[in-house]
């Protein structure tokens, strides 16, 4: 929980007009804040990182702008309001939001002061760390190639992403179905088995949409070419937790938040800053100019 007083939009505008030399970065949640604070600390950048809950965003204002009341929408809303008054490239502030399904829906990504993640979310950046010999596999007695685990997870995660994306594209507002009952532990290269057809049946049935299955399939075929192997970052840790649990691993390690922390701790800053989002933020901070001096 942040211990700084909440500011409204007008106060932020006044702050950045009066102090254009500031470098304030707003993100969605605590995990995002910890990541960016880690990066700015290790690179010695004079940037203040805040979660969006430090800004007052009335639900009524979000609704008036066609946004739902969640943290991502609050980031988008504040970025819109600040960009409208301060312009597209004001030096004092940037905001970061998950790209989510915007590329699937054909929405522009970076807009004014708003920067979008390259992946669907910040958590998705850590997925590739699994194939770098995920350090606790051997300690659990799991004689499994981390690279093969990554590839097996990718096959499942992409199908889950497409199912979520189709729901969003169709604007059905379906309640998500956790896929754990359709996940199995396999031997050989597959490692993780996923009965997608059964999952889809259960997902649609849960939301009284089984009769619309042909339309759902049509939308899946339509969006798949634009999905480019995307995965939803939050699903990475949920799937990994389910897989470990099904192998009777200590339940303390079958917690998605614990797994997220483990991957966060083993990720090197110099590796993650190579992505476009982080390059944009470093450029905004003048990082490379500082290094060249």
What does this structure look like?
The protein is of the alpha/beta class and 293 residues long. It folds into two domains: 128 residues, Rossmann fold (3-Layer(aba) Sandwich), CATH 3.40.50; 142 residues, no CATH class. It is 48% helix and 8% strand. It has twelve helices and six strands. A four-stranded parallel β-sheet has the order 2-1-3-4, with helices on both faces. The protein has a two-stranded antiparallel sheet with strand order 5-6. Helix 2 links the parallel strand 1 and strand 2. Helix 1 packs across helix 4 and helix 5 crosses helix 7. The longest helix has 25 residues. It is globular, with a radius of gyration of 21 Å.
Give the helices and strands, then pairings.
Elements: H1 9-18, E1 24-27, H2 30-42, E2 48-51, H3 59-64, H4 71-86, E3 93-97, E4 114-116, H5 146-170, E5 183-185, E6 192-194, H6 196-206, H7 213-227, H8 233-245, H9 256-266, H10 269-272, H11 276-285, H12 287-292
Parallel strand pairs: 1-2, 1-3, 3-4
Antiparallel strand pairs: 5-6
Helix pairs in contact: 1-4, 5-7, 5-8, 8-9
Sum up the structure in keywords:
Rossmann fold; disordered C terminus; two-stranded antiparallel sheet; 12 helices; single chain; 293 residues; alpha/beta; four-stranded parallel sheet; globular; 8% strand
